[in-house]
Design a protein that fits this description.
It comes from freshwater metagenome. Its EC number is 4.2.1.47. This protein has ten helices and 13 strands. The protein is an alpha/beta fold. The chain has two domains: 198 residues, NAD(P)-binding Rossmann-like Domain (Rossmann fold), CATH 3.40.50.720; 93 residues, UDP-galactose 4-epimerase, domain 1. The radius of gyration is 20 Å and the shape is globular. The protein starts with a strand and ends with a helix.
Amino acid sequence: MARALITGIAGQDGSYLAERLLADGYEVVGFDRLPSAGEAQNLVAVADQIEYVEGDLLEVGSLRNLIVASGVDEIYHLAAPTFVPDSWDDPSATMAAIVGSTAEILAAALAVAARPKVWVSASAEVFGDTDISPQNEESPMRPRSPYGVAKLAALGLVRTMREHHGLFACAGILFNHESPRRPPHFLPRKVTRGAAAIALGQQDELVLGDLTAERDWSDARDIVSAIVLAMRAEEPSDYVLASGEGRSVGQLVEAAFAAAGIADLSDSSIRVDPAFVRPPEPIAPVGDASRAQRELGWERQISFEQMIGEMVEADLADLRSEG
């Protein structure tokens, strides 16, 4: 029976990955900090089937010791700070959490005789100030935030360990991906929860920034499927994982309000606050996942509309339960 370690197991991607690997017959060890209420809810279905190890990415040696002791065959390193603006507040902690933990995991994988396979989740933030769209694995990478710089360094470590030491190590350059398990401080969840609250008469307006800003949104469960395929491929590589379609915040709003049963947005009190408007990006962040489709046979199964609909339904149920 295969045995896997998932860092960040209580998060959106980690919890879906745990469910998938358990369904495939794996033993699963999860590493994460003490989960929040929302994160704990993510693990309800699998809590009694996993080994949960509480820890902190900034605790030097903890991951290495866990890898040596746990005897895992595969390592999925998903844990990291996820909210990009926060990286400006503490760049050194961001670098330590992302780069330091990746280096520790890769070194540990090399040190144990079993040589476990390693997956590291990078981010589309590595592209930053690019002038090419859509972006693929060979596109110029010019990150514009400490978070993006850290993710680029982690990506470089994966490539270096793979090429220099022959380690089976893969990295995913992940574009935005959502689900009902996405934390509420991220824009898509803010929109779906706002639409649900307005539909239930619990909120009068939804305050947003630039409605023309575009993102490439996929469903988290499709991203997890690609991660599994990459780790089961004959040869390791790095993959852009994305929908390949740019959609505006305005389109996101329309989909969410339609799913909530609000057909006329003019009645829904959408208000644009300049304080939430970020500087415009020179090129829309849209990913080209051709390599993953070609080499892994990966195909997205969940449409944008289905994804947003499920998020709205989850928010409606949650808000109703709160009274």
